[in-house]
Amino acid sequence: MYIKPKENTEMKAFVLKQYNTPGWVELHELPMPELEAGKVRVRIKAFSVNPVDYKIAKGAFTLPLPRVIGIDFAGIVEQTGADVFGFAAGQHVFGLANLFTQGTFAEYVDVDQFALSRMPTGLGFAEAAVIPCAGVTAWQAVMQKVVVPQGSNVFITSGGGGVGGFAIQFAHLLGANVITTASKNFQRIYGLGASHIINYKTESIKDRIMELTAQEGVHAVIDMVSPESAYENAKLLRYNGSIVSIQGRPEQWPFDPFTKAITMAEVALGAAYVSGDKESLREMAKAGEVIAKLIVEKKVDSMISHEYRFDQLQQALSQVSSRTTEGKVVVLV
User: Fold this and answer.
1) Do residues 265 and 146 lie in contact, with contact meaning Cβ atoms separated by under 8 Å?
2) Structurally, how many domains does the chain consist of?
3) Which domain holds residue 235?
4) Local structure of residue 218 (DSSP, 8 states)
C-alpha cells in the first residue's frame, strides 16, 4: 500500500544562475510552487541528462535566469491538482517536462497531466528516465515522419548517441537495412541493429552510401547533426525518399522542383508545449508507453552507459558535454 509522505514546503534543486560557468548549476533549497490545475506533482526518482541541457547551460538558448533546467524524469506521483483525471498518488510515471517552465534537475516537478506516461511492471526508474527526450524523438522520426518499408535502406547519423541508438533499434524492428555513422564502439552499435557503420573520420559518407545502395541512394534519412548536415544528407535520398531533421530543418531545398519529389520534416518535442497542443502531448506520452513496453520485453535496449547520484549532476553534465558519451547518462535522485 502506498503511504503518502509528509507534504514538503521546500525541495532541493539545481539552479542555473549564469550561462557558461564552470560549475554549470548550483544546488539550492527552493520553495515548492503552488500546484496548478491540470498538473501532477511527481517525486523524481531519476532523470536523464541530454545534450539540450548542457547547451542551455552554455547559453545556446536565451531563457530567463535563474531557472531549474532538465526535461526528462521518472518518479512517483505525489499529488494531483484540480481537474486531473486518471492519475493518483503512488503511481509510477515518467515524461517530458516543459523546457520553458520548471525543469527536472530537482526532487520534484509539476507536469501537465497529458505529458505523463505510466510505467509498466518491470521497468526501472532509470530506464524510464531515458525514454521521453531521446526515445520519443527517435520514435517520431522513424515511426511518424519518414517512410520505412521493410527492406528499405535508412541512413541514421550519429549511431552512438541516444537518439541515434533508439532510431537504429526502431528502424531495425521495422525490418530496414540501417546505415549509420560512428567512430568507435562499432560492436555495440551493430548490436542495436545497424547493418553498416561508416567511420565518418576515415570514410566518405556519400561514397560509401552510394556504394551500399548500388548508386540508388537511401529511402530515408534521419539527421541528428545540424540543418547544414541535413541539407547535404538529403542529397543521398532516392526518388520519393524522406528526411527528418532533429537539430533544425535546412533553410533551402536540396533539389530543383520536379526532380526527386522528396519529403522533408522535423522533430521538435518542445514545440508541443509552445503550441499548447494537449493532444500532441498525449500522443508523445502514449509513444513513451509503447517504448517502455518494448524495453521490458527486451526488444529495445535503454542504452544506459553512466549512472550518477543527485549530488554528482555537475559531473553528469560534463560527461554529456564532452560529446564522447555512448548511450544515455542517468542521474538517480
Assistant:
1) yes
2) 2
3) 134-266
4) E
User: Within this chain, do residues 144 and 121 fall inside the same structural domain, yes or no?
Assistant: no
pLDDT tens, position by position, 282-306: 999 999 999 999 999 999 999 999 9
Helical (H) or strand (E) element with 294? helix 278-296
Cα 270 from Cα 147, distance rounded (Å):
23
| Long-range pairs, 199-208, Cβ under 8 A, ≥24 | 205/181, 205/233, 205/236, 206/235, 206/236
pLDDT, one tens digit per residue, over 17-65 is 999 998 899 999 999 999 999 999 999 999 999 999 999 999 998 899 9
303: left (phi over 0), alpha (psi -120 to 50) or beta: left
Q: Assess whether 57 and 162 both reside in one domain.
A: no
Residue 266 dihedral angles phi and psi, to the nearest 5°: -140, 160
DSSP element (H, E) containing 15: strand 10-16
The residue whose grid cell reads 555513422 is 181
What is the pTM (predicted TM-score) of this model? Answer: 0.95
